[in-house]
Amino acid sequence: MFLYRYHRRPDSMEVVAASSPSTGAQGDAQLIDRLVTSYRQRAETPTGLWAEIVERHADIHTALMADDRARVREILRNPATSDLMYGFESNARSLHHSRRLEDIHEPALALDALICLAEAIAARPMDNPESYMWRPVRSRIEQVLSQVETSFGFPLLLPNPIPRERGSVCSRGIVSYRVPQAIYQAWRISQLVSGIAHPRVLEIGGGLGRTALYAWQFGITDYTIIDIPISSLAQGNFLGRVLGEDAISLSGEDGASPAKIKLLAPSSFLDQPDRYHVVLNADSITEIGAAAAQQYWSAIQAKADVFLSINHEANPVVVAQLIKDTKGIAQYSRWPYWMRRGYVEEECRFAGC
């Protein structure tokens, strides 16, 4: 049954699997200080499915609030010693212990998704099962990366600042399943803001911050992620190590420059009048409960020119229904998401924008 998650024959891909080693992080004391200070100033309560997931973070919360720096350093330098990334990455303590099928298949799924990305941007021909031969031509990650980067016109960052990230090995490190997803999402944002001199983008629920990283590579630097405290902690830890501390601004810090990735509390979006050219939500608005989803949807209508949604429809909250129940939508498109089976990509433009 798990093979249905692939977009092509698994035996058509040549995969070498590995996990990223420890980086021996140094010089991160100031970054950790900022992350701890920002976290301790926040008190948002997660809703919906995340109200259950956050119970896994109790030990992390305790260490942060007690200012147990030895444990905090261990968590941020090696998040797999905790469940910091549980819910948006597979590199979490509980998942390493459970060895789910998706974790076992992650290296092959990562290459499968990278090929999907290349097909989506027309960097390689679409896989066609009607033309399958008995022995398939085997795709290799270096070839696919070259096709994607040639199409984009720049080399992609493929950092592994966090130990035990599992995926498909290439000459520059490990490519895990979430990497091609984030590259695709950043590419889609770049299409939507094409021609805008200084685009402002906001993402609701940013995972580890990978989409923000790749949006940065596409030249989109005024980027805001709205998320709960534990996710903002993980995002700041990842982006601060990859792009450097000066590239990020945390909740509670003064003087956020437009040319920074801003990691803010939900109130910064829900209660403030700022407008954005694009608001993105990928795989989260359907998981926060009906009341919170409606609150976000009202803010999106008021503050976004374009809303890009990438979500499944297996939860009670469905983005298509939110859109159907709304007046004042100038344009709406819906199609299967290129990168992940069972997910829908929806683009909504609001009247007057």
Strand content: 15-25%
Q: Give me the number of helical elements.
A: 14
Count of DSSP strands: 13
Query: How far apart are the first and last residues' alpha carbons, in Å?
Result: 44 Å
What kind of sheet is the major sheet? Answer: 8 strands, mixed
What is the spatial order of strands in the main beta sheet?
8-9-7-6-10-11-13-12
Average per-residue pLDDT, rounded, comes to 94
- What's the SSE pattern? EEHHHHHHHEHEEHEHEHEEHEHEHEE
Q: What ranges have pLDDT less than 50 throughout 5 or more consecutive residues?
A: none
Structural class: alpha/beta
* Rg of Cα set: 20 Å
Helix content: 25-40%
Shape: globular
Describe this structure as you would to a colleague.
The protein has an 8-stranded mixed sheet with strand order 8-9-7-6-10-11-13-12, sandwiched between helices. The protein has a 3-stranded antiparallel sheet with strand order 2-4-5. Strands 1-3 form a two-stranded parallel sheet. Helix 10 links the parallel strand 6 and strand 7. It is an alpha/beta fold and 353 residues long. The chain is globular, with a radius of gyration of 20 Å. The model has no long low-confidence stretch (mean pLDDT 94).
